[in-house]
Amino acid sequence: MQNSANRSSETVLVTGGAGFIGCAISASLLESFGRVVVVDNLHPQIHESGSRPEGLADGVELIVADITEASTWDRVLPDLKPDVVIHLAAETGTGQSLEEATRHTHVNVVGTSQLLDGFLRNNALPRRIVLTSSRAVYGEGAWRNSEGAFFYPGQRTSETLDKSEWDFPNAEPTAMKASEVFPAPVSVYGATKLAQEHILQAWAKSYGVETAILRLQNVYGPGQSLINPYTGIMSLFCRMAMGGRSIPLYEDGQVRRDFILIDDVASAVVAGATSARTHPTPLDIGSGEFQTIGTAAETIAARYGAPAPHVTGQYRQGDVRHAWADVSAATSVLDWAPRFNLEQGIARLADWIDSQPDVRPA
To answer: Which of 2, 122, 127, 133 is paired with 346 by a 20 to 30 Å CA distance?
Structure first.
């Protein structure tokens, strides 16, 4: 790996870099690399105005283009020839992916393969590619039965969910850890993210390109889109509580999630791009702890003085019951660790939402 002095003459390319994570890492990338270039199509689901986002640091070059089109890479790569690539571009809605499977597959899978083909066509192999993957690749993950043995329960069915049978009987969930738990996605989105991983790993090994694959848990925080209904529940919960509403909790409110603040995700992604070491298996990126959905909602309701959350018993197809990360490998390999707990993160998110001029209660 190049030292920091040598990186100052290097170029980093960020796909989807005008989005939530891309804006959050942009200033740090400018400190680490000599040139930072973002390719993003400014999709209206995220970028309502279609203009350069305010959160994208000055000095970052923005190219508005579609990663799924070969012509994009034939236009961009001959001049660019990036040393490091951070591949953020993706369609991310778990529920939406069930209804728009072609769109998610096209962007996430074909977009990745078009990028890789473009590198070869234009003689522009990077030294390292960082992929932001997702905890969705695990599906329900591994559980332990009453005898302490691992098993993989697979996808919950509509029949069991209709009966409010939320957990798997006589079993306990375990943390998601790439070296121990194999992936078994239960959503189209999760399947496309796993396909991204496999395509990238097979391609990169063939051409001697380093890879850093980061499986992110539930990312939230300042800068998150407030118009995209598929970017997560934390900003939605804040807007509900802001309007004095009781936050509805799906299932029994005891769903476990690993909510990780954008600041911690940003530092992990930058570490993936700049660290001296890479790792042959994906690295799990989370807060280091899990919370229930109910706890998160209660914390937000208290922040706004809203009524207590209420359990609805509803469920969403493609959602997993519990998900949280074992971050020990990421801590060791990247010399990284999460710094913010749930209360600190919610305070930062709520303060930011309150400061937005056009925000509306949900």
So the answer is: 133
